[in-house]
Amino acid sequence: MLVGRPVTTVRRMRLGMELRRLREQARVSQNAAAEAIDGSDTKISRVEAGKTGLNRLELTALLDLYGVTDERFRSGLVELNRTSRQRGWWQQRSDILAPKLQELIELESTASQIFEYEAIVIPGLFQTKEYAQAIISGFPPPHSVPVEQAVQIRLERQKLIERDDAPRIICVLDEAVLHRQVGTPEVMADQLRKLIAINNPPHLSIQVIPYSAGAHAGADGSFRLFSYPTPADMDICFLEQKESRVFIEEEAGLEPYRTAAEHLRTQALSSPDSMKLIAGLAAEFDSRG
């Protein structure tokens, strides 16, 4: 478990973890790996931790040393290494984006699947402009970023779900999220209708845990679970706090969150029944407007 560690790129972290697995599987020491690329054991350690990268020749030398012969797998790692050096739009706006937000966008943008359980508010990827304005105005962003600019950044993040290669998204909401009025009744009604509009199982599935479910697997707080594809498939759990963030990558730490995600989906209403509940609440907010 890592608290507040910068994620340079998720791709680099995935590559590093896979290279470590391959080295240990081949029973090669860090010193021997360092000699193969004319480097130091410190560099190998940093590469495996995702803190620094490799050029193509160095990566090829390590794959040869580790006995990796599968050409498709090798090509996948070479491509992963190449793309790890690419800068996303969020990294080009580091002057206004807090590190925590840059890391979240990096996690979202490179995942093949996202599971999110939210107990308090509508997730940022699904918020309407007006709902986002009300949320951000009530809790202004750090570093003196104007509210309107912060809202536009949140809307920019939402382009992720419109991409041809968008990740599969599974979102479970506590029913309290739907009742908590953020902004005016009209803002809430529009926000709830947006949830209905974007719900598109199995690509984007929204489920609600009703009050009648009682105690459930998400009672100890919200979390996000990101999954990444081969090569170097891995999961990362992201826990967000006011001034810090926690990344969980180790299998022992991830397993309770995977189990919680499974239980939450089982305890929640089906997606069609969730939409009926959301539609009813939207009508209630309409009647208050």
From TrEMBL:
* Pfam assignment, any one: HTH_31
Q: Tell me which Gene3D superfamilies the record gives.
A: lambda repressor-like DNA-binding domains (1.10.260.40)
Domain HTH cro/C1-type: start-end pairs: 19-73
For this UniProt entry, which segments traverse the membrane? none
Q: Which GO terms describe its molecular function?
A: DNA binding
Identify the domain of life. Answer: Bacteria
Q: What is this protein called?
A: Helix-turn-helix domain-containing protein
- Species this chain originates from: Streptomyces pini
